[in-house]
Amino acid sequence: MTTTIKNLFAFLVLPAMFFSCSDDDSSSPTENPADTSYVLSYQTTDFQPYIWQFESLDQLMNGTISMVGQGIEQPGGCIPVANTFFALTGDNEGSVGYYLNQSGLLSTTNHLFTGDTYAYGTTDDNKLVLINSPWDASSTQNELLIYDPATVTISNRKFDDFALPNGNFLWPTSVNVSGNRLFVSTFERDADWNLYQENAVVKVYEYPSLTYVKTITDTRTTAIGQYYTNTGMVQTESGDIYTFSSNSRTAGYTATASHSGILRINNGESEFDADYFFDIESSSLNGKVVSAYPVGGEKVLINYIPSAIDADQGNWSFLNYGTFKFKCAILDLSTKSITEVTGLPDHAGDNYFGFGSAYTENGKVYKSFVTNNEGRVYQIDIATGNAVAGAVISGGVDLPAITKLTKQ
């Protein structure tokens, strides 16, 4: 990858998988619609990012979505975290949080310099863990930071060396926190951006101290996640963490004899579960999982490429619009049951917009997809897998993140 591409990637900093899900418990307080509002991020075809506040999910399902005459131009990728929409950027002005003020309008926090962040994830205690990595291999020291949206501060930061004995080093792909442990999935790379991915490798830290504990590996599958997507690990409602390995050329790797699959780290543990492996290539999907999004309970929505055609696609092609052959499915990770998504055309990869790009409410998932002729929102029924076409994205192709905010 060239420096030009790197700079584009850095500009398109993309959202860790966090959802603002509805609560079906009838004993829970009923939200006053006037006290809540939806917010999304939008990217134009010439890579200009916007933030748009809207009042109903019906607006995602009808007509067109355009930023002409509306929206707020805001550099950075947006991350839903703790009732805020955090615009993460390495620009000198710094990152900034958006929240809903008492008038029901978007307001901003103070700016905060966060650096060049390549992996991040939300936590159980409403924080955001960021990992800054030297893209040019000028150092193997990565900086781990904890952002606290309640105080708009970095509450802790610590450096850790990601170097390996062979002279290569580990690159972070996803971050997840469960209890008092922080997990960072990785792939191995060298200074020239050659990738090595023979095993699944996760670095484990104490949380919130950020003290390094150990590195765990598993030979049953390959590297977890891929560059800049932050969709390689998902924590389900049980507190278990599931990891997703593509072993895929479209995800930037040279495929090995191993299979694309899913591993589990049980709640409260810091090792891979030796008794759990969900082999996606040997399943009815016969595919390679590229990204995953929690949709409630133990279920996820995955994006995958059929195994039979993966080798014929362009290397790293999940990051652009050149491959329109990806598919989706709903997985119940606890039972390993599969529901294929129907009514959704074959589409491009997530183009960096994975973390936060799917929003779940009332048993439906809302997410944008790019086909070979348009970008459009689709509503996917979690129980049946049926997808319904929604609004066309005019002047752009992606909605990188969608969330719901409550007045503060």
Account of the 3D structure:
The protein is mainly beta. A five-stranded mixed beta sheet has the order 3-28-27-26-25, with no helix packed on it. The protein has helices at residues 3-11, 307-310; strands at 36-44, 49-54, 64-65, 72-73, 77-81, 84-88, 96-100, 106-108, 117-122, 128-132, 141-148, 153-161, 169-178, 181-189, 195-206, 212-218, 233-235, 241-245, 261-265, 278-279, 287-294, 299-306, 327-332, 337-340, 358-361, 364-370, 375-381, 387-393, 396-406. A hairpin with a 2-residue loop joins β13 and β14 (181-189). Helices cover 3% and strands 44% of the residues.
What's the short story on this structure?
The protein has helices at 3-11, 307-310, and strands at residues 36-44, 49-54, 64-65, 72-73, 77-81, 84-88, 96-100, 106-108, 117-122, 128-132, 141-148, 153-161, 169-178, 181-189, 195-206, 212-218, 233-235, 241-245, 261-265, 278-279, 287-294, 299-306, 327-332, 337-340, 358-361, 364-370, 375-381, 387-393, 396-406. By secondary structure, the protein is mainly beta. Strand 17 and strand 18 (241-245) form a beta hairpin.
